Request: fold
Amino acid sequence: METLLFYLFAAMTVGCALMVVANPFSRNPVTSAMFLVLTIVSMAGLFVLLHAFFLGAVQILVYAGAVMVLFLFVIMLLDLKEEERRKIKLFGLIGGLVSVGTIGAIFLQSLAATRPGANLPASGAEGSTAALGKLLFTNYLLPFEIVSVLLLVAMVGVILLSKKELK
Reply:
């Protein structure tokens, strides 16, 4: 049953993520945002299958709840016209494909260089929030702070984009 759920959640995650980027049903960005919510929920299902219940709950509460409300608010606030929504520029397409190819090559190289399960710590409590907090604020403090600064910059960018021009 667990294997079947894994394949179901994995297929939903990949399928919904593809629908976020290339949605043939609708050109409306709200539809893409709803597919992003489905992607986040299916990823939370994968976290639950990994016995990371806290991460699954945070995934749904924070990302599917708060962040998606913010995304929808910005999409509706900007109110893009239909002809401005899906203009594909050649430079952007080539740059995106090069970026995805580079990230994929780095991923495959790092996957080939490691043995699965070689450096796993022996943890006594699965899904423990105390162990997660200790690990997050000791070993991963710098990446945690970088992500917080990136989120701050994104929030300032959204505010600047949503400001009306004063004439």
